Structure formats: structure tokens, C-alpha cells
């Protein structure tokens, strides 16, 4: 296993997501409606997460289901089966791990890896609340995964790989930890044009924009790491829905209509756009 010394990008990303976890407040907060969201009274919060089908989230408490910094639904993409061992890269509050855990069942196992202490604390507190015995969270870097060689059936990840300063190393680590014949199901941000160096500012890197690879570069790096059957699919419908509902606002000097028009012809658009993608690939058997 490789070791990883945190770079300035890791530190900026850690600070950013540490704040995200802190600002969301404790995951088991008391409210006037119920003495505790962990108690039998439950909470009055509704599930509002539109990244996943409602039926997938229905079994989870709203506070767990709504806590996402993801860009899609890698769990539906992964088509998990009972007994599989799943690794979630950049597990955040643990939502994808808990969804995966339900699908792989007690004969399966889920490992979430994240470098940010506040996110791990949140995920572990959620795990205790859900009594999810087939899930564990490990602190570590994507570039030096604390996971054995050839031990994982499926790797999932939700809006994380773009944040790494060394994506080729992340792909090599994914390949190393997967069993022969294992697969990946990833949601990540992908750009239609290479992003200029000056786009690598801290804020836009941390909010999953300026670290994005192009479709071509993603494909190339996965191939170089040894992956086969690589597919990248833009999730334009998801962005359109977010623009139409006003949750995503058009960039400065752009109208909503212009943004929707550009999204329709995303790949041909001169303007650089970063769009969530669903990415699948396999390690040869
Ligand atoms: C955008 S959030 C996504 C969290 C989660 N996947 C979700 O869908 O809510 C990115 C997460 O990845 C973690 N992360 C980013 N880069 C990482 C790296 N190089 N190694 C380990 N964790 C990383 C961050 O700490 C953060 O929790």
C-alpha cells in the first residue's frame, strides 16, 4: 500500500468539507418536536434529496438521507447484489454506504474511506444510529487507500475523484484494491473542455469544479490504470431539473434559457461546462 502526505489541495479540501460537516450541525440534534431525532419520536424533517429514487431513500431517517454533497446516484448504477464487498471513496456522511449496506445485506460488507475527521465522525454517528453492522469507516486518502489488494467487488464514489490532486494515482489504487472482474460505479464531475490552470483556485476546486477532467482524459487515465469496458454518461437531465427548479442558478451574464440551450448541446458548446457524469468500468477477470 502507498502512503500519502497531504498536499495543500488535500488540506484545503479537508478544511472545506470539515466546515460542511460542522455547519450541518450534530446529526442527532434535539428539536422541539421530538426530544431527539434518534429517539422513537423521530424528526419532522422530510426527505428532500432528489439525486436518488425516493424508494431507495425511504428506509432512512431524513437527516441521514438529506445529508449529501454528491452529484448523482452511484448506488443504482452499481447494481449491487447480496454478499458483495463495496468500497465507497470519499464517503462523507455515509449515505451511499448505508444504501449499499442494505443491498449487500449481512453477508456483504461496506467500507467507507474519507480523509476528513468531521465527516468520519458524522458517518460513524449515523452508523450507530442505524445499527449498520456491515459498514465500517476508515480514515485515509484516495491516493493511498487503507484497503487490501484484490479485496473489493465494487467501488462506488460520489463527487470525490475530481477533488484529488493526483487522479492517476487514485485510479491505480482503485485497480489495486478491486478483485479481478470487479467493477466501479462512480458519479463525478466532468468538463467538456480542459480547464485552464488558473481555474485551479481553492474555492472552485473545493466545490467540485476546477479539478474536473474531460471525458477524454478520464477515459485515458482509467485505461492507463488497466480498466476495461469504460463508459462515461453525462447526467444532463439532472442538471436541467436543477436549473428549471432554480436550485442551480445560471452563471453571471447568462439567462436560464441560454443555460438550458447550452446544456442541450453540452459537448459542442464553446463555453466550458462541468457536468455530473455516471462512470462505469471493470478490472479484467
Ligand atoms: C463532495 S464530498 C462528497 C461526500 C459523499 N460522497 C457524498 O456523496 O455526500 C467529498 C468528500 O470526499 C472527501 N475527500 C476529498 N478528497 C479526498 C481524498 N483525496 N482522500 C480522501 N477523502 C477525500 C472529503 O473529505 C469529503 O468528505
Question: Can you walk through the features of this model?
Answer:
The chain has eleven helices and eight strands. It has 285 residues and is α/β, with parallel strands linked by helices. Strands 1, 2, 3, 4, 5, 6, 7 and 8 form an eight-stranded mixed sheet that branches. The radius of gyration is 19 Å and the shape is globular. About 5% of the residues have low confidence. The chain binds S-adenosylmethionine. The site of S-adenosylmethionine has 25 residues, from α1 and α5.
Q: What is the structure about, briefly put?
A:
By secondary structure, the chain is α/β, with parallel strands linked by helices.
List keywords for this structure.
19% strand; alpha/beta; single chain; 8 strands; 11 helices; 285 residues; eight-stranded mixed sheet; 34% helix; binds S-adenosylmethionine
Which series of helices and strands comes N to C? HHHHEHEHEEHEHEHEHHE
Number of strands: 8
Helix fraction? 25-40%
Low-confidence stretches: 29-42
Proportion in β-strands: 15-25%
- Strand pairing plus helix content: what structural class? alpha/beta
Small molecules bound in the structure, each named once: S-adenosylmethionine
CA-based gyration radius: 19 Å
